[in-house]
Amino acid sequence: MTDPQMENKTTATMAKDCCALITGASSGIGACFARALAARGRHLVLVARSKDKLEALARVIAAKHSLRIEVIEQDLSMTGAAQRLAATLKERGIAVDLLVNNAGFGAEGEFWKLPLDRQSEMLRLNIVTLTELTHLLLPAMVERRGGGIINISSTAGFQPVPYTSVYAATKAYVTSFSMGLAEEVVEYGVKVLALCPGGTATNFWDAGKFSKIEFPGGLQSPEEVVEVGLRALDRGRSLAVARFINRLMIFAQRLAPRRLVARQAGEMFRPKSFDAGK
Question: CATH for 4-276, among 3.40.50.2300, 3.30.110.70, 3.30.70.20, 3.40.50.720?
């Protein structure tokens, strides 16, 4: 459970009329962040491609909490998406002091057979938009001497992962970028966290057309991931890995040759259709 005193301290550092902006908020981890932050009394900006899902979530939250909830329908995988979103925030007079960069997706298959445009879209969403949106919203936090950024990374970013090579590489970037930035801005009272879930029970797997993958301990719930993330942000940590088994596996990988780690990851993520075709 989150320490109430620590939670109150973190909430107090956020500007009273500012909002928490959550990308990919229509479902999964993003929607859970919205509900958890609303429970903390945070005003919200919900961003995703599905306006209907965002509005439905906003209605559910509004029925429980008297908060400002803004819904912005936008495809963040498009070139210039971060700039357009920042312009919309300015037009609506919305100040953001907590940014949750949650939007992202993966894809399974052999790199050279997956559509190039789909993988380029992945790079834009997972890396470019995340970086640009952080760059656009961070200066105001630095000026206010307070704020927070949670970038959703993945345990996949700690090693090469064959058959989802681009996705794993994007998450390696997110973790490294977030932890480096955290050190840059700590003196300004801004917290930056790389939150790294393992396999989580969301629509990520269906959207990326992944085969069924067996994770040690099974899939974790998005609520569990969000709780770990908010607790880590409260404590001012720059890295959080959900579940002990995931932390243990990451530690063990450091002791093994990188090529062996990649090979083992490849066995885990190898599409089942490949084996069926033998």
Answer: 3.40.50.720
